[in-house]
Amino acid sequence: MAGAVQSPQALASSPGALPPELTRSEHEQPGATTFRGAAPPEIPVIDMSSSNAGCSMAEAAREYGIFQVVNHGVPASAVCELQRVGREFFALPQEEKQRRYAMDPASGKTEGYGSTMQQDIPGGKKTWADFLYHNLSPPTAVDGAVWPENPKGYKEANEEYCGHMRRLTRSLFECLSAGLGMDEGFMAEAFGGDEVVFLQKINFYPPCPQPELALGVAPHTDMSALTVLVPNEVPGLQAFKDNHWYDVEYVPGALIVHIGDQIEILSNGRYKAVLHRTTVSKEKTRMSWPVFVEPPTEHVVGPHPRLVNGECPAKYKAKKFKDYKYCKINKLPQ
């Protein structure tokens, strides 16, 4: 059985000074490193119903690696229900979340409930977040035992939302493929076609006693092809551009799209994976619902031959996605 989850949610109920292992070094502290000057760059907000949406996405993927989409076709009711069941899961007693759903990587259980405070990095700092993590699709990748039975409606809400994510992802892939001069089906096929994996994560960032010193998620790029994220109304996502950390504005009803490592690799660097991090609040709970869209583990991804030439040689090695993940998680050369 998994050991007890050391949890920011539990620490938040007994406020005090931030533990040393959560206090970032000065060059990482958001209070000191967030851009506060005039006229910060605005992350593009793209209307998917507009005739130039595809061109705008491709430009944003090249310039920012992140954009927001509105009029995306995902019903507000589906998003609200996804958020409802997520909030209610984290409102369950800590003992119930731990006893029934805790992940236990040592025993091979890599899905379920956990905390970034569990992640043991020698000499490294920890972050202020709890999470729930599980596969959504395809059916062969889904372990129903890690999906919460409580709250009521959790399974139905996630299954419905996954259907909308599959449709939206097809549209995003088509637009980004066209932006590379490829056929619309190019990117979906390159990442595994019908076997593309959808992973749901719920991030829970409770109020933090010293948010200017801590991070909810440390700087990183996503290993996925792309990530589609629903935030709540509490800001916290930041993107790195031109040597500065910028806040990503909360846009009601929008979905946030991150370009991930696999699209950067496939495009041979024409599209950029976004370096991002998450800050936390002193008074409010921030939550987010990212869906990671990934190739199957045995699928090989590398720069497409049509995007490699004498002027632009291959910048990345082709490798199985499972090998890419192993190297990135263990900080090994790619």
Structural classification: alpha+beta
Strand content: 15-25%
- Measured as a percent range, the helix fraction is 25-40%
Low-confidence stretches: none
Report the major sheet: 8 strands, mixed
| Largest sheet: spatial strand order | 1-2-10-7-12-5-4-3
Mean pLDDT: 92
Tell me the Rg in angstroms: 19 Å
Number of strands: 14
Shape: globular
Calculate the terminal CA-CA distance, rounded to whole Å.
Answer: 34 Å
**Helix and strand sequence:** HHEHEHHEEHHEEEEEEHEEEEH
Number of helices: 9
Describe the structure.
With 334 residues, the protein is of the alpha+beta class. It contains nine helices and 14 strands. The strands form three sheets. Strands 1-2-10-7-12-5-4-3 form an eight-stranded mixed sheet. Helix 3 (53-63) links the parallel strand 1 (45-47) and strand 2. Helix 3 crosses helix 6 and helix 4 packs across helix 6 (154-178). The longest helix has 25 residues, at 154-178.
Topology:
Elements: H1 8-12, H2 30-33, E1 45-47, H3 53-63, E2 66-70, H4 76-90, H5 94-101, E3 112-115, E4 130-137, H6 154-178, H7 186-190, E5 197-205, E6 217-220, E7 226-231, E8 237-241, E9 244-247, E10 255-259, H8 261-266, E11 276-278, E12 286-294, E13 300-301, E14 319-320, H9 321-329
